[in-house]
Amino acid sequence: MKLMFGSDIHGAAECCREMLSAFEREGADKLILLGDILYHGPRNDLPEDYAPKEVIALLNAKKNALLCVRGNCEAEVDQMVLEFPVMADYMALWLDGHMAMCTHGHLYDIENIPNISKGDIIISGHTHLLRAEEKDGIYYINPGSVSIPKGGNPRSYAVYESEKFTLKEMDGRWINEIKI
C-alpha cells in the first residue's frame, strides 16, 4: 500500500489543489491529512490563497480517499462542513509490522512520546518543519506544511511505500527519506 501524508493546509486553496495533484501523480491509495485543514490560526499569517470554502469543496470531492486527524486549529464547525471525519486526536496504522501513530503534533510528537514501542513511528505535522529521523528506536516523520512552511523549508508532503518514508516538494522533487 502506498500512502501520502499532508499537513497544515490552513485554508489555502491553490496549495490544496497542488497537494491533490501530487496525490494523483503519486498514485497513492490514501491521503492522510494531519490537521489544520481550514483555518490559518492566530499565530500564522493569512495564506496568500486563503479560501477555505474552496478547500472544503476540493476535499469533500475526495472524501473516500482521505483519512484525517484533528489539528489545533480544527473546531466543531469544521466537522459540520467536511464530509469525512476530522476530529480524532490520533489514528493508529499498521505499516509493514510497525505501529504508526498519526497525530497533528500539538499533543504528541518526538518530544512528548505516547505509549509506543521501539521500532514504532510517530507521524505528525504542526511545526511546519520537515523531519525524517530515528531517535531512541522511535521513527519520527513530519511532512512539513502544504501551505506555510517554516525554517526555510519548501512546501512539502511525505509518501510511505515499502518500508520507506520519502519527503518531497510539492512538484515531486526528492528532499529526504528514511527506511524503517
Strand content: 25-35%
Number of helices: 3
DSSP, total strands: 11
**How would you spell out the order of helices and strands?**
EHEHEHEEEEEEEE
Q: Average pLDDT across residues?
A: 95
Unreliable parts: none
The biggest sheet amounts to: 6 strands, mixed
Q: Can you say what the CATH homologous superfamily is?
A: Metallo-dependent phosphatases
**CATH class categorisation:** Alpha Beta
Classify the helix fraction into a percent range: 10-25%
The CATH architecture designation is 4-Layer Sandwich
What sort of overall outline do the alpha carbons produce when their principal axes are compared? globular
Report the C-alpha radius of gyration, rounded: 15 Å
Question: Could you provide a short overview of the structure?
Answer:
With 180 residues, the protein is of the alpha/beta class.
Task: For this entry, give a set of tags.
180 residues; alpha/beta; 5-stranded mixed β-sheet; globular
Topology:
Layout: E1 3-6, H1 13-26, E2 30-33, H2 52-60, E3 66-68, H3 76-81, E4 90-95, E5 98-103, E6 121-124, E7 130-135, E8 138-143, E9 156-161, E10 164-169, E11 174-179
Parallel strand pairs: 1-2, 2-3, 5-6, 6-8
Antiparallel strand pairs: 1-9, 4-5, 7-8, 9-10, 10-11
